[in-house]
From TrEMBL:
InterPro entries: A-crystallin/Hsp20_dom, ACD_IbpA/B, HSP20-like_chaperone. It holds the Pfam family HSP20. This is Hsp20 family protein. Keywords: Stress response. Coiled coil: none annotated. Residues 26-136 form the SHSP domain.
Length: 152
């Protein structure tokens, strides 16, 4: 059984990909590692993930189309060690963030167990395009509607 589409209205043309992105985000939300998203200035964002115990070589950041994907995988260093209590597990993770069109990843750094990723959202240019209304004969209009070339 399919659920009703959020963007099912005929007024939302070309937004069907947004629903697919919302589904992807919903599937990847297990809560680990915890993160913050801050607005640093107009058009500037910072994502901060708590990745205590991970070295830079254990982390990978990629941008796949409009998704920022952060992966962490620690090597198992428990060989030869005897733990009386192990509360800090070497847990791998993958955290994905959907980026809006035009957002650019400027850089990332690791500091005191926190991974920071800087993002920039350039201000879009305001575009106004005038659409000419052509005066046509009934025959030309009919052939355009039917898929023909028509006459202008």
């Amino acid at each position: 059984m399919s659920r009703p589409s959020v963007f099912g209205s005929p007024l939302f043309l070309g937004f069907d990909h947004l629903e697919q992105m919302l589904d992807r985000v919903g599937k990847s939300s297990d809560g680990y590692p915890p993160y913050n998203i801050e607005q640093m200035a107009e058009g500037r964002l910072r994502i901060t993930l708590a990745v205590a115990g991970f070295a830079m070589d254990d982390l990978q950041i990629t941008q796949e189309d409009n998704q920022l994907v952060i992966r962490g995988r620690q090597a198992d260093d428990s060989e030869g060690r005897v733990f009386l209590h192990r509360g800090i597990a070497a847990r791998q993770f993958q955290r994905a963030f959907v980026l809006a069109e035009g957002i650019e990843v400027e850089g990332a750094w690791l500091d005191n167990g926190l991974l920071h990723v800087e993002l920039r959202r350039p201000q879009p240019e305001v575009r106004v395009k005038r659409i000419e209304i052509n005066k046509t004969t009934n025959g030309a209009t009919r052939s355009l509607v039917e898929g023909g070339a028509g006459e202008a």
